[in-house]
Structures are given as structure tokens and as C-alpha cells.
Please model this.
Amino acid sequence: GAVVSQHPSRVICKSGTSVKIECRSLDFQATTMFWYRQFPKQSLMLMATSNEGSKATYEQGVEKDKFLINHASLTLSTLTVTSAHPEDSSFYICSARVRNPENYGYTFGSGTRLTVV
Amino acid sequence: AQSVTQLDSQVPVFEEAPVELRCNYSSSVSVYLFWYVQYPNQGLQLLLKYLSGSTLVKGINGFEAEFNKSQTSFHLRKPSVHISDTAEYFCAVSPQSNRDDKIIFGKGTRLHILP
Model:
């Protein structure tokens, strides 16, 4: 239980275009999702916290106009990288907190490898 | 605020040998503790977690960890590693609260299994 499905797993886009990444909680309701970025051989860097029905909370230094987050329902959060540039190429991972006592903790999506050419 | 320190960025170990990956944390409040494993180009998979109760926690793939409150440590151990254990391992903490607080990660330890 407590699975987060993230799509796409890989995407290649041209510089200047926008890319949308989806994360769905399959068997539980996620009022909050977390979006991370991971550079090669580094830890996860929290970008923003996505709250259902309200605006996302961005970490310091993360451009909210560039990384648009929408959390329209209790099971879906999306991250849109707008006007992508090569420096946006990275591995993006979403996560949700699970409050079910049997699975309490944080569950992660499988990640999206974004390459901007 | 919380912080997590993983003392070793890389740990080489021979196949079938034991391994310990170290993790220390600091926090002004009580925390939950986690170990995650990440294989290349994949998300994070939970190995084990400490929420309460017994301080020795057993997880998947033969891993275990011991919570030591006095030393603020949560070291991960496996008595005999396999080549398939080659991966990045992350220790993490989150505050014990009802709010949706973020989880704090260490910088990770790369486990390199030598044949």
C-alpha cells in the first residue's frame, strides 16, 4: 500500500518548451506532496511543498514562476517546468507523507529524468 | 530544526562481508528515523524506519538499524552484503508532529560492493 506513481520516467524536450510531471497517490489521499530535485551523486533537494487546494510553498532560491506546482485533488500533484533550459536538466522526485499507521512515513515516486536539449 | 549527518560518502566492502553505514542526527524535538535506498535512475525505496518501541529495527533485504537516543545515532547494518546491494543509501528524519513537515535527508552514502 501507499504507492505514488510518477510519470513520465524520462523526458527529453527542446530548450524553451514546458514539461509537466505528474504524481498520483494510488491507494491513499495525499493532502501534501513534496517535490525534490536531485543532481548527480547528490542528495535530494526539496524544491517545494504542494498542498491540496492551496498555493505551494517554495524553498528559498526556487523560482515559483519557473517551477509551477498544482495540487488540484487529493490524489494528484503536478510540477511544470516552464521555458525549460539545459540547466534545468535533472532528476525530479515527488513524495507524499502517509499517515496510515501500517505504512506511516514517506513514500516516493520513481522519479523523472528531464533532459533539456 | 533537524539535521542529518552521514559520515561516509562512500563505503567499499567485499561481497559477503558485513557493513555498517553511519548516521547521526540532531533535533530539538522527537523524531522519526528512516533509511532509504536508491538504485540508479530510480526513486527512493524504504529500507526500514523507527517510529517507537524496540530500538532495533529490521528492514527489507536483510538490513537492520539500531536507534541510540543518547548518541543520536541510527546506524544501518547488514551482516553479509551482496553485489545487488550496490546503491546509494540515505538516512532521514522527520519531526513527530501532526503537521505535514518535510523529511530531512543526509547527503547519502554510496555502498560499493567489491567482488
Observations:
- Chain B has a mean pLDDT of 93.
- The radius of gyration of chain B is 14 Å.
